[in-house]
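Subgroup meeting minutes
Present: P.N., E.W., G.H.
Scribe: E.W.

1. P.N. recapped why we're keeping a running log of single-chain structure predictions: easier to compare across weeks, and new members can see raw inputs and outputs side by side.
2. G.H. added today's entry (312 aa).
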Amino acid sequence: MFFSVIIPTYNRLPILQKCLHALSYQALAAHHTYEVIVVDDGSTDDTVAWLQHQAWPVRYICQAHQGAAIARNLGIQASQGDTFVFIDSDLVVTEQFLQAHAHGLEQAQHRLRHDRLFSYGRVIQTCNFETPTAEPYKITDFSAAYFATGNVAITRHWLDVAGGFDPRFKEYGWEDLELGMRLKRLGLVLVKTPKAVGYHWHPPFSLDQLPQLIEQEQQRGRMGMQFYLKHPTAPVRRMIQMTLGHRLLWGMLTANGWLNEHTLSSLLQFLINRHHSQMALGIARIFLNWYQVQSAYAAYMQLINRDVSDNG
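Output recorded in log:
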């Protein structure tokens, strides 16, 4: 099995360094091999300059800032492996990471007697930058996602059949789950491989992150609308929270948007000062969800207005 590990990155050099360092120490069986391809998505930090001076043979490609979907497709085109592993550049893996994916794929093929499958590893959230792999698994780390590119392995054949990532997803969110919809229609089986562990690092929550988080949720709303246009089904509407129930829920919890980053800033800072940054983030997620829902509906109304104008 020849793995091509494809990693899109954008302005994440410090954690990317840890990500690549961990990948350079893989305890992989002799009959397996791997390559690592980093696709820089127009970073403005020192990512490219650092990659140029690495002794360990990491292949890297640069593109203008166009989003993770196009970056991953570019990595796919440049790869040589028969099996892809997709991770994010803020994921730090264990030494057994690739071998666990290899074992999971081989065992599942033997058990199911077909190769219509992919393996999905475990992702543990952590704020510990110095030793991210020290974080224990928590119930909040459970994911019910069918196909998410934080930690997944799939053969080239089935990715080719599905058609790769949709390049129209140029903003944040949904490009992997949309590909998952196409893989599910092809009948691919999800194989959980909990020993393929990756530690997803993110800094402790602070108020100065809120503008970026709000922008991400607004982008997620717009890309959610793109997802729904391609797969106009009730399950997708629920996934992107574009239902009356979601609008009522988040509208009620935020008092129709009155509880937001401004009105709650004192409470959030109080919790952060007392080392409860995760609790503060949990509260912030309420109005962040409201931003996503509002953005999805705004994109929907824009489409309706455009249709009316075109037909008028």
